[in-house]
């Protein structure tokens, strides 16, 4: 290991998968360089951009941030600039053409090769590009996860093979590829040994998981959840994201039999119009989606359902949008990530006729968001007076005497407590709440 202290700055765009990958970049670099992280790009020796190409805006932001890094490099020619993630995967060499001061370009599947890419850049003086898909190799080369917060993400699969017509993920992250079952269990057990109580299983479509076992069988997602939940150190279990088409009855039944499963499910629906759902190639109707939710609520009445929506998909009419608004009321979603459709080069939807004016799309988005905010506010208000078990994640941002904990239904609660409680589970009585932040008081430490 080099004795020179290297300062690393990482800027992460986009989804939780990218957040996870950024942590892994730190882990692989720390394993071979004497490394500290800095949040000040102007102090850094290495700046990495872990990029997102899901919408055009996210992609353009990367190039404007790169322009700023270029200025830093003019002042410090030893600064090394790397671009990873989905924009890297999609653009490859084109990034070097557009920004010749970039030193390394790597994809979500080659981040474990960062040390070699950086070494090759230093030795050859030439920019290095590796955006190949060596598939599961990535999982084999990433150092074991370390954590200090009491909660942790464990990646169980990579990529997506659903090919929704609007989405770049299958092209940037590759086909669905599950991590072997024993590897996942080993990582979970190591996290528990470090004091982690809350595990979130992570992937683009976790419920499509098909993990190979040591004796050559495969196990599905319901089996994986059951065995993780059975580990004594696990207090609470979450997963994200799942696809409605893969919500098997066995998976739904676990909400009745497995109290450790959090009462929250993020289940992207995208639209309430069957015509649009078909054009998106989602593989379910609004009625089928509602039927899944009905079964989930039969198994776990208090479950909170959150979702993703796209408004203004090509050809979406007022009637289609009203069908989405009706679905929102029927399901009573608790929160959402909602976006205006962004045409992504290379996807089928980018070729579809789209004559809805942008102002109409924006007005639809605002209406949808306002309605879901109302529904979420009702849930927060109904929680007032109840006692919730929370995992203490941080010191509150507002006051150093307060802690921030997370409820089972994914809300942050601020309450007075001591830093010694960080990472522990405590019971908190909810006093009041706005949309996604609640105030509470400590009841007891279990
Ligand atoms: N299973 C994935 C998840 O939620 O993590 C879905 C993939 S994507 C990373 C997350 C969300 O981005 C999608 O559910 C969709 O609502 C949105 N999205 C994807 N492509 C989009 C596009 N071209 N325009 C607008 N929104 C898009
Ligand atoms: Fe994208 Fe659809 Fe997969 S939204 S990540 S192609 S399930």
Automatic annotation (TrEMBL):
GO terms for molecular function: 4 iron, 4 sulfur cluster binding; metal ion binding; tRNA-2-methylthio-N(6)-dimethylallyladenosine(37) synthase activity. Its EC number is 2.8.4.3. Residues 381-444 form the TRAM domain. Residues 146-378 form the Radical SAM core domain. It catalyses: N(6)-dimethylallyladenosine(37) in tRNA + (sulfur carrier)-SH + AH2 + S-adenosyl-L-methionine = 2-thio-N(6)-dimethylallyladenosine(37) in tRNA + (sulfur carrier)-H + 5'-deoxyadenosine + L-methionine + A + H(+); N(6)-dimethylallyladenosine(37) in tRNA + (sulfur carrier)-SH + AH2 + 2 S-adenosyl-L-methionine = 2-methylsulfanyl-N(6)-dimethylallyladenosine(37) in tRNA + (sulfur carrier)-H + 5'-deoxyadenosine + L-methionine + A + S-adenosyl-L-homocysteine + 2 H(+); 2-thio-N(6)-dimethylallyladenosine(37) in tRNA + S-adenosyl-L-methionine = 2-methylsulfanyl-N(6)-dimethylallyladenosine(37) in tRNA + S-adenosyl-L-homocysteine + H(+). [4Fe-4S] cluster 2 binds at residues 160, 164, 167. It is an enzyme of class 2 (transferase). Its cofactor is [4Fe-4S] cluster. GO terms for cellular component: cytosol. It is found in: Cytoplasm. It comes from the Bacteria. Pfam families: Radical_SAM, TRAM, UPF0004. [4Fe-4S] cluster 1 binds at residues 15, 52, 86. The keyword Nuclease does not apply. Gene3D superfamilies: Methylthiotransferase, N-terminal domain (3.40.50.12160), tm_1862 like domain (3.80.30.20). Keywords: 4Fe-4S, Cytoplasm, Iron, Iron-sulfur, Metal-binding, S-adenosyl-L-methionine, Transferase, tRNA processing. Binds 2 [4Fe-4S] clusters. One cluster is coordinated with 3 cysteines and an exchangeable S-adenosyl-L-methionine. InterPro entries: Elp3/MiaA/NifB-like_rSAM, Methylthiotransferase, Methylthiotransferase_CS, Methylthiotransferase_N, Methylthiotransferase_N_sf, MiaB_methiolase, rSAM, rSAM_horseshoe. The keyword Protein biosynthesis does not apply. NCBIfam families: miaB-methiolase, MiaB/RimO family radical SAM methylthiotransferase. Belongs to the methylthiotransferase family. MiaB subfamily. HAMAP family: tRNA_metthiotr_MiaB. Catalyzes the methylthiolation of N6-(dimethylallyl)adenosine (i(6)A), leading to the formation of 2-methylthio-N6-(dimethylallyl)adenosine (ms(2)i(6)A) at position 37 in tRNAs that read codons beginning with uridine. Monomer. This is tRNA-2-methylthio-N(6)-dimethylallyladenosine synthase. It comes from Sideroxydans lithotrophicus (strain ES-1). The gene is miaB.
């Amino acid at each position: 290991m080099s004795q020179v202290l290297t300062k690393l700055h990482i800027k992460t765009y986009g989804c939780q998968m990218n957040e996870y990958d950024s942590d892994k970049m730190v882990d692989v670099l720390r394993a071979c360089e004497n490394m500290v992280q800095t949040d000040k790009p102007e102090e850094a020796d290495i700046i990495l951009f872990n990029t997102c190409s899901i919408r055009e805006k996210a992609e353009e932001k990367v190039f404007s941030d790169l322009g700023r890094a270029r200025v830093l490099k003019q002042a410090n020619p030893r600064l090394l600039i790397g671009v990873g993630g989905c924009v890297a995967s999609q653009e490859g060499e084109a990034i070097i053409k557009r920004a010749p001061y970039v030193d390394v370009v790597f994809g979500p599947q080659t981040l474990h090769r960062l040390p070699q890419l950086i070494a090759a850049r230093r030795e050859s003086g030439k920019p290095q590009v590796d955006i190949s898909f060596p598939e599961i190799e990535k999982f084999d080369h990433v150092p074991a996860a370390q954590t200090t917060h009491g909660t942790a993400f464990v990646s169980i699969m990579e990529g997506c093979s659903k090919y929704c017509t609007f989405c770049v993920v299958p092209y940037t992250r590759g086909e669905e590829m599950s991590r072997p079952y024993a590897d996942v269990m080993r990582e979970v057990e190591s996290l528990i040994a470090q004091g982690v109580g809350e595990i979130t299983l992570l992937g683009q479509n976790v419920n499509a998981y098909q993990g190979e076992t040591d004796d050559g069988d495969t196990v599905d997602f319901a089996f994986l959840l059951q065995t993780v939940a059975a580990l004594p150190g696990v207090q609470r279990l979450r997963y994200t994201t799942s696809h409605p088409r893969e919500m098997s009855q066995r998976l739904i039944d676990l909400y009745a039999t497995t109290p450790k499963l959090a009462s929250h499910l993020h289940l992207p629906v995208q639209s309430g119009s069957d015509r649009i759902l078909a054009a998106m190639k989602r593989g379910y109707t609004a009625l089928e989606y509602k039927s899944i939710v009905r079964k989930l609520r039969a198994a776990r009445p208090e479950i909170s359902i959150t979702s993703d929506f796209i408004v203004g998909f090509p050809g979406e009419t007022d009637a289609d949008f009203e069908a989405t608004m009706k679905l929102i009321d029927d399901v009573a979603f608790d929160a959402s990530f909602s976006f205006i459709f962004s045409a992504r080069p290379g996807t089928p939807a980018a070729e579809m006729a789209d004559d809805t004016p942008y102002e109409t799309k924006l007005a639809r988005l605002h209406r949808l968001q306002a309605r879901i905010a109302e529904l979420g506010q009702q849930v927060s208000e109904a929680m007032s007076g109840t006692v919730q078990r929370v995992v203490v994640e941080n010191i509150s941002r507002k006051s150093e005497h307060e802690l921030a904990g997370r409820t089972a239904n994914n809300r942050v609660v601020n309450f007075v407590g001591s830093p010694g409680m960080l990472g522990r589970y405590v019971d908190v009585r909810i006093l009041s709440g706005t949309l996604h932040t609640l105030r509470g008081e400590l009841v007891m430490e279990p």
